[in-house]
Design goal:
Blueprint: H1 7-34, H2 43-55, H3 62-70, H4 78-81
């Protein structure tokens, strides 16, 4: 296929931005861990940990899987629950 880039080309282009984002996440987690208090029962911390585990997998749908971790379950009545009906 003409125009299809190699993995090396994509990696060369993406390496520095990915590195910067990983450092940013690591620094944020370090700041949280050095702070007072505990987040052991905070569901957001559980989500972050689950997302990190997804990053370690070799599958090619990591972005989708992480999005699902942070997404709400579909609610058929979401319009009513958020008072977004056209009835008003």
């Amino acid at each position: 296929m003409p125009g299809l880039r190699t993995a090396r080309e994509v990696f060369d282009q993406q390496f520095l931005p990915v590195r910067a984002k990983l450092l940013e996440v690591a620094a944020a987690l370090d700041r949280i861990d050095r702070s007072n208090g505990s987040l052991a029962n905070d569901p957001r911390r559980t989500q972050v940990q689950a997302a990190i585990q997804v990053l370690l997998r070799p599958e090619d749908d990591r972005a989708e899987q992480i999005q699902l971790i942070f997404s709400r379950q579909y609610d058929r009545d979401w319009r009513e629950n958020f008072r977004m009906t056209n009835d008003e």
